Amino acid sequence: MVTRENQLGEFLRASRARLEPGQAGLPDDLTTRRVAGLRREEVAVLSGVSADYYTRLEQGRERNPSSQVVGALARALRLGPDARDHLLRLAGLHPGVLEVPPLQVDPSLLQLLDAFPRAAAYVLGPAFDVLAANRIATALLSPFGKERNMPRILFTHPAARVVFVEWSLVAGATVRALRLNAGLFPSDPGISAVVAELTAASAEFRALWEDQTVGGLMRAYKVFVHPRVGRVELTYQTFDVKDTPGQQLLVGTAESLASQDAIDQLASLATA
């Protein structure tokens, strides 16, 4: 289970540190500031609460803010929709906290994967394990052997930084989405296990995780360098599996004729 003593306060503190005064409509007196981002007093003023109350929220001495206060804090901190919902969940006010989803993939979804003969399609679980993949996706991920957890691949597999050309972008987006899922599925043992493992094993993961930024998987452009077929440029679309919350279908389609040729070669390798 992903539990921390003061998740709400840590998220507020990290969000405050990321927001520059100018972004919040305040004077950019950066030369006189001793801390990054906004001061506690400034967040309090912007959200219409007392400085003492806001301080107690950050310190974990106050844990039950109203939905009106949380909404005001989200506006003051310029949080996007994913981050705002995450803040509501940390405050115990969002109905979106879900039970641990099953790891089995519905047979109809397995059949759907095969409906993409010229695209890489796979299903992710909440800890970003690849639960099922079509033959092209399986071939695309073959440089990582039997490992099927994407965060572990990115932060511990020696081939990750070669295969993923824009590794830092992919890694950052993955950690942000993993933290979002940790709020959605706080009892998921798979998320807890991978976070604990990578926090201990990777300083880069630890820094990204402690940054507290959240964001769902979105449309993304990814560049792979596969040892058998070379450069593959794909645009990914992500679809939530409505019948199984927590599972997501990702479909990567070729960005160019050269990439489609590489995809077709992967399909041939998968059937060889």
Automatic annotation (TrEMBL):
Classification via InterPro entries: Cro/C1-type_HTH (IPR001387), Lambda_DNA-bd_dom_sf (IPR010982), MLTR_LBD (IPR041413)
HTH cro/C1-type domain span: 33-84
Classification via SUPFAM superfamilies: lambda repressor-like DNA-binding domains (SSF47413)
Superkingdom: Bacteria
Name of the protein: Helix-turn-helix transcriptional regulator
Biological source species: Kutzneria chonburiensis
